[in-house]
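User: I'm writing a tutorial on reading structure tokens. Could you give me a worked example: one chain, its sequence, then its tokens, then a sentence or two explaining what the tokens reveal?
Assistant: Sure. Here is the example chain.
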Amino acid sequence: MSFLRKSQVIKPEPTSQQTHHTTTKSSFTLKKKFHIPFFNNTAKTAPAKESTLQSAHVTPSTNITSPTTTTTSQPKKSLSISKDTIVHRTDSGCRRNTIWSDTVDIDLVSNLSSKELNRQEVLFEIIKTEQEYVRDLRLIEEFFIHPIKKAEEKSHRTVVPEHLNKVFNSISYFLFIHEVISNCLRERQEDQSPLVRSISDILLAYVWVFRAYAPYLIHYEEALRELEECIRKKDKLGRIVKKQQKLATFRNMPLSTYLLKPFQRLLKYPLLISNLLKCTDKEGFDYENTVSLKTKLDNVLNDVEEQKRAHDNMERLRELENRIHGLGHFRLAVNNRQLLRESPACQNSLSLKKQPSLRKSLTVMSDPSQHSNRRHSVRNLYTLECNDIVLLAERTGVTKEGQPMYKLVSRPPPAPLDDEPVLVQKPDVYE
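And here are its predicted structure tokens:
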């Protein structure tokens, strides 16, 4: 996925299996295939009927048991399948490993087929990691957002910058909706324990929620810059954040790490659902729902990615427009226009490659309509290429951020027909 630029690509949150140096390698793979119409929340969260239980192939003679651990007195045989370990914290802050097969009777585990056992482990991980995600969101809400809002009310002034405020608003919404999802998943787990038969109907009911992640991703990078600037300047917001980060609850992790959680969770959903689909029998009652869930989730995430890409492109066009002198009334940043590249105008010329000294002597004249007879050196000419237009400009300097400044050499393009006013003539009314 390309939610962030190359220099800011953030890897998905590592699984607990990677965190605890296990030898088992996760079988999750991320596909870059993620636009369907908006659909309503119509699914029910009631437990599936007993008659719809996916068949668990009972093989008493199969030598499949849970791996040995230090938490049980009875030794267990090793499993021949890969399982992910979920790491969570108790109230005392201690870390311990929990997988589904360690929470149920060993005889039940030994009587399940490897495919069904893998499926139960994936279902368990989805439910457990959803609870952990809600916990992290609640920490941000209670220890950062609430104190900052109280400080604003007390001082009667805004202390949160624009982009960071939008990110905080998204966090509050995510907490509200994911608490609902987590509660539904936990109730399903309790009702169908020890073998969870289906959770796809619950996730199908709330898959539309992930469209709300688009504003978060759009404002995330600017929000981080605003946060770093506030901490550097030690203003009101910066002091509150620094104080709260020192609490033992956050285990020496900064707020920026917690603000990354929604992005990491968004990346992990397709991995989990893909793995669940692999472990679900095609003849099972939940297979079609799981396929539908994966399709809708991929489409929703694709919409989110497209919104982020369109926003980034528009920002690049606006920024470039501010660096070009001589555009007049022409607007570079318009919908459906994509910036392809900024490059030297003659970089691919074979003549100049063979004779580099020509760059110093070759010149071009300005557009006569601009009432200028000035010649421009070829070595300073750049082409600003979009999907629908190409501008020729001379590089005149750089901005404070090191970005090149340009002066337009070619004539500004005429306004597109779509931008011209449409005159509507009132029809004659006949008696």
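What the tokens reveal: The first helix runs from residue 16 to 19. The two ends are 63 Å apart (CA to CA).
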